[in-house]
Batch of 2 targets.
Target 1
Amino acid sequence: MWFTISPKTWQFTNSSNLQFFPLPTKIKTIPKAYNGDDNSTESTAGKIKRMVLSQEGRTKLNILPDREFYAYPRFVTHVDDRFISSLTNLYRERLRPEFEILDLMSSWVSHLPQEVKYKRVVGHGLNAQELAKNPRLDYFIVKDLNQDQKLEFENCSFDAVLCTVSVQYLQQPEKVFAEVFRGLKPGGVFIVSFSNRLFYEKAISAWRDSTGYGRVQLVVQYFQCVQGFTQPEVIRKLPTEKDGAAPQNQWPLNWIMQLTGLLSSSSDPFYAVVAYRNFKPVHE
Ligand SMILES: C[S@@+](CC[C@H](N)C(=O)[O-])C[C@H]1O[C@@H](n2cnc3c(N)ncnc32)[C@H](O)[C@@H]1O
């Protein structure tokens, strides 16, 4: 007597009879890696399971093309030192020197730890002058992800993809996250970080109308809507009283003082959502 397991049926065979059983629910076929062929019926990993945003949720107040808004370089840092230090520490923990890294929606600054030399760092963004100044990039591409979500990379090109303080500008995040999945090697990591600062007119309405908690949930859902990402991990570092956050017992006095400029506003909250393609690797 012998048996074979095929994706559709479980055949249990001996020489005298042949019976077909439906695939038991506990036995799952391993999804094949996304192969970029949208007509493939076999592939499930990397597919978009459902859309997260409504049409209204994708809208921006400023409807001019993003390339116009980013036409002039902005040589500024978009978050404070405390945020950057939390992010750099996270990169120090999760990224290894042999990694090939894609910095999505990048600019003239890098938050990678200076002391680590990575195998390759590729930048992507909308302003070539900013990207040309970024000291960490081996090369860069300029592409408007709200016009076209396809990235010109082979499948499984990167060990890590980073997106820093920019996810709020994506109008088709589901497609971008699926495209990141395709570009990641199995076990590769996608780190999406953000704070509460934004170019208000360029952020999507679902982001503008939300709170810190709601924005974290939104990014978690962007990951969850793509088949094959691991359960997203959420990292939060909110300002304490030491960092300038208003003590609970002095509200609303602190709030009034901040409004009148007598007390500096608190530092930037740090949020990161992290997930891996297929599995989280264990490093020795
Ligand atoms: C707030 S900046 C953050 C830059 C950088 N990640 C950092 O940490 O400093 C937002 C970035 O998102 C990029 N961006 C905005 N809209 C975009 C779009 N439609 N397509 C591609 N990149 C976009 C811009 O190039 C800009 O550099």
Target 2
Amino acid sequence: MAQARVRLTPAGRTPAATFLSGSNPRPAHLTFFPKLTPTSLSAAAAANAPPPHIVVVGSANADIYVEVDRLPLIGETVAARAGRSLAGGKGANQAACGGRLALGPTYLVARVGDDANGRLLEGALADAGGVRTDRVARAADAPSGHAVVMLMPDGQNSIIIVGGANMEGWAAGIGSEDLELIRKAGVLLLQREIPDWVNAQAAQAAKSAGVPVIMDAGGMDTPLPRELLSLVDIFSPNETELARLTGMPTETFEQISMAAGKCHKMGVQEVLVKLGSQGSALFVEGEEPIRQPIVPATEVIDTTGAGDTFTSAFAVALVEGKPKRECMRFAAAAASLCVRVKGAIPSMPDRKSVMKLLESVGVE
Ligand SMILES: Nc1ncnc2c1ncn2[C@@H]1O[C@H](COP(=O)(O)OP(=O)(O)O)[C@@H](O)[C@H]1O
Ligand SMILES: [Mg+2]
């Protein structure tokens, strides 16, 4: 507070003075001091401070990859050619991406088990850089979420998922401290790998405090409860998820527009559709859609995590107050860098690389 007063000299056009005077400047020495309020002071301070924190509520999963020539038959044991365990889960992926890209902190609210996979996940998130993991709690009675991904030589895969703590670790729900963190956030990011009721609890807290809610549609393909959708500001499916949720075809842009229109009717005003190599499109109810082509990648190595990178990078730009079109460009550049590297979390770019890529491709 002392600092703000010092900076408010009559002649000054500091961010605080600009904020207080608005578009109709008044003589500062007459009106500024009596009009200071806690809100205006914090807004003034915010002009120089990093953007508010991002909260991701979602899954953390240990993904066990095994490379096999074929799937085992019943009763058979086959030897894998190779195997490794990597941190994944859409919540962890999106938090890792936020951690790399955001100027302010990114918190992950998640549940892991009190087991080796839980420690693997905590370690990987710490190594990813920038993620606040102190809200990742260990559930006493459930294993960490994990998946066995069987990779075949022809590129096909078969996956078995154990929901574990992601599904059963929430006990009575999100704790009061975490709800408070959500209420103070710049944006809340959700996906569908934890129970809908937990997402609804998080979204409700955000909504009550005017915090924008972005929901990535990836995860469970059960119908999305309308009460949950109505708490979401920006809903982000890929073309397949959009088709599944609306029961409509999404092969052409026309069809995608119609399906996004159905989402509007279902209660969500903004639909951010990810279209793979076709880029993305934002449908805001009552407005012309905004289309964003891909930022071409020099070489596409692995698109795993591209969707998570896109949604999370969009949230990062949104929290900085960037217009939606710019958020989409930032997200497309981040996702373009992601598809050039193998894996999900290991492939997520840092802010400097995204800015450099954006600079090199120029504005539209
Ligand atoms: N081949 C590619 N080259 C460059 N960017 C890509 C490519 N494929 C996907 N992307 C980017 O990643 C984003 C998300 O990928 P997408 O496949 O749509 O998501 P999901 O993984 O959810 O299916 C796209 O909107 C696009 O910006
Ligand atoms: Mg896709």
